[in-house]
Design brief:
By secondary structure, this protein is of the alpha/beta class. Helices cover 24% and strands 17% of the residues. It has two domains: 249 residues, FAD/NAD(P)-binding domain (3-Layer(bba) Sandwich); 131 residues, FAD/NAD(P)-binding domain. The protein binds flavin-adenine dinucleotide.
């Protein structure tokens, strides 16, 4: 990294004013480092606001960054004391906006980062590279392009804007782009502002995670009120068991009920389930679209659809980083060192060893991807994890190696998520419900290298089976009466 006095005066650029970008801003404030936050939206928390109707599964104490809380306290702000996890909208209103206001002088809204590079140096040049400041190019909504120099860059731009395509091969299905008007995103507000679009219509939900489950349950409530509302559900796997979870055998009754309710909807025919469905094409025809897929029994066509909700997960936008020297896990697109620690193939319940600046580093010195985007395509990211990431990264940028290296991640014990001391998934809980570890699958040593020998990993499981469990435990009897919770407890297992 640059060591000249002039460059030390350059700001650290933070990309994105979501929960993790703003937590980074709090740590930079605390450390007295100059910084600028560049946010594409016209408000902080712009991505979270788009799923504002979804209730998270994470209690406030695991959302609010400790340093942000300490900085906000003198303003009279206090962390909400309710055990009820916030909706996305409440998260923005009660935390991100106050924090955004606190660091507001450093936040530039409506400014989308379109490229990051080194000043006067393309990716191929090595000599003197780390002495050059970063060059960050932005575009405003009116088309104006600006550039600023930075001593370091923290990319906290999330993955919300890059949902996975519907195509079973990871590519957009043939005709998917032309069918754009039928695609409604992973979490439409079916019982709220989008109600009119779905009432009396035929909707296909694609995906086997918590987002899909929430949308299906909400559509079913709508169908009970509005005759003619039809619901189809397509999954790539052979069985919906992981979404159903443990049902009556589940130690957590409310979690089991979510799966049971979905199973009952399928069993009763209210939701028509198509399994083993790998989408190959979308064929718009006037007011409706057909979705075509391959199954074990040959091609299947789902005709006459008014809407398709693709709850198929997200992937990082790496296009703006094409001039940055990245080292990524080839499958997950997370930093290479982090990949094995979060690979959903081995971490079915989101067990996360503590990780900080070292695991997040790239060959490009002074450049970090943090937050949701740091997990690449893995669906198990949690805000708590991101807060610790940026604490470590900012400490490293401040030259406080001791604090940067001492990564700690205090995660709640869910009681449903464990990997035994031999590194084997016990199957006690899966990311999106039920045991999801592959029987007999050995977890590679690299997946647990940050965990002391002999200590079973205990993670903050996500989605229906885990993070939901935290919320449900915290809520206990609240869930039964909390109508707002009917929009779902949110899930990153989309
Ligand atoms: C429906 C849903 C429910 C979830 N529930 C939980 C939960 O209960 N608990 C939990 O811990 N986690 C949950 N997560 C996972 C994750 O913690 C959240 O997505 C969280 O918002 C991630 O924070 P972030 O700051 O990394 O990214 P984001 O919140 O996505 O913020 C990124 C910001 O960057 C901006 N941006 C994007 N691109 C650019 C660019 N090129 N230039 C400038 N700005 C840009 C965006 O506008 C946005 O404001 C959930 C996720 C989803 C989708």
């Amino acid at each position: 990294m640059s060591t000249t006095a002039a460059d030390q005066d350059l700001p650290v650029v933070v990309i994105g004013a979501g929960p993790i970008g703003l937590a980074a801003a709090a740590h930079l404030t605390d450390r007295g480092l100059p910084f600028v936050v560049l946010e594409a939206g016209d408000d902080v928390g712009a991505a979270v606001s788009q799923w504002g109707h979804i209730r998270t599964f994470t209690p406030w104490r695991y959302i609010v960054d400790a340093t942000a809380e300490a900085l906000l306290a003198p303003t009279g702000w206090a962390r909400p004391t309710t055990p009820v996890p916030p909706t996305g909208a409440e998260l923005v209103e009660h935390y991100l906006r106050p924090l955004g206001a606190l660091v507001g002088a450093h936040v530039r809204l409506g400014e989308r980062v379109v490229a990051v590079s080194r000043a006067g140096m393309d990716k191929m040049r090595s000599v003197g590279r780390s002495e050059r400041p970063f060059l960050v190019r932005t575009r405003r909504d009116d088309g104006a392009v600006t550039e600023l120099r930075a001593r370091a860059v923290i990319d906290a731009s999330g993955t919300w804007s890059r949902p996975n395509p519907l195509g079973g091969a990871g590519l957009p299905a043939i005709g998917e782009e032309q069918a754009g008007r039928f695609l409604v995103g992973p979490l439409p507000d079916v019982l709220g502002c989008d109600r009119g679009r779905f009432a009396g219509r035929r909707t296909l939900v694609v995906g086997a995670g918590h987002s899909a489950a929430n949308t299906l349950l909400n559509l079913a409530r709508l169908a009970a009120e509005v005759p003619g509302t039809e619901i189809l559900w397509a999954i790539r796997g052979a069985s919906p068991a992981s979404v159903y979870g443990g049902a009556e055998a589940d130690a957590l009754a409310a979690r089991g009920k979510l799966g049971s309710d979905l199973r009952a909807l399928v069993d009763s025919g209210i939701v028509r389930l198509v399994t083993g469905f790998a989408i190959t094409a979308l064929e718009p025809a006037g007011e409706v679209v057909a979705v075509v897929g391959e199954t074990a029994d040959g091609e299947v066509r789902l005709d006459g659809l008014h809407h398709v909700a693709a709850a198929t997960g997200f992937r990082p936008d790496l296009s703006m980083l094409s001039e940055v020297r990245l080292e990524l896990d080839p499958g997950l697109e997370a930093p290479r060192a982090l990949g094995p620690l979060i690979d959903p193939a081995f971490h079915s319940c989101g067990t996360v060893p503590p990780h900080g600046h070292r695991d997040l580093a790239h060959p490009e010195e002074g450049f970090y991807v943090v937050g949701m985007k740091s997990y690449g395509r893995a669906p198990t990211f949690l805000i708590t994890t991101g807060n610790e990431q940026v604490r470590s990264v900012v400490a490293a940028l401040a030259g406080d190696r001791a604090a940067a290296d001492e990564v700690q991640l205090v995660l709640p014990e869910t009681g449903v998520c464990s990997v035994d001391a031999a590194g084997r998934d016990t199957g006690a809980g899966g990311c999106c419900g039920g045991p999801t570890g592959v029987e007999g699958l050995e977890v590679p040593a690299a997946a647990h290298r940050a965990r002391p020998d002999g200590v079973a990993a205990r993670g903050f499981a996500t989605g229906v089976a885990g993070g939901g469990a935290v919320a449900l435990l915290a809520l206990a009897d609240v869930t039964a009466t909390d109508d707002a919770g009917s929009c779902g407890s949110g899930g990153c297992c989309s």
